[in-house]
Amino acid sequence: MSTIPAINSGIQGINKGMDGLKRNAHDTATLNTQNYTTNIPDLKDVTATLIDMKSNELQVEMSAKVVKAADEMIGTIIDITA
Known about the structure:
With 82 residues, the protein is mostly helical. The chain contains three helices and no strands. The protein is 83% helix and 0% strand.
């Protein structure tokens, strides 16, 4: 892993967001099986899962922007010192 704190933070954010997305996908896939008596998922569960999924998606996007900005900054510093 990188020794640059901004890149490390960005990568950790991406990993956390991806883990959340995996969890949300699993929760969405199993909603019908949790309420097996009617086979109709609880609307609150569906809504909460979709909101969490969007939140995790935004976390991945923002973390990727942090990594990109840090990478560009490092490139600029290298260009200046070269």
